[in-house]
């Protein structure tokens, strides 16, 4: 709804799919809380998921061209679809974790 309100309806499907991948990874592969952050600046949408596990995400694999793989496609999909993606370790008020994010150009 936020993207639609800003006239970015063409980004909705990609943003929802990739955000769901980040959140599902955070929930499936870590123990503890997770959160999603959405930021729209001049021409870039950045969506990221925070989780309490400080371990880096597994490197994305190549997407299976036949789509037969049931698991392990999340970050590969993010890598293939986003304009930019990455991760960073976080430490705040004694809590450790990581932030995995992607960017989509809003132009």
UniProtKB/TrEMBL annotation:
The lineage of its organism: Bacteria, Bacillati, Actinomycetota, Actinomycetes, Kitasatosporales. Pfam families: HATPase_c_2 (PF13581). Residues 14-85 form the Histidine kinase/HSP90-like ATPase domain. Keywords: Kinase, Serine/threonine-protein kinase, Transferase. This is Regulatory protein. The keyword Transferase applies. It comes from the Bacteria. Residues 50-69 are annotated as: Disordered. SUPFAM superfamilies: ATPase domain of HSP90 chaperone/DNA topoisomerase II/histidine kinase.
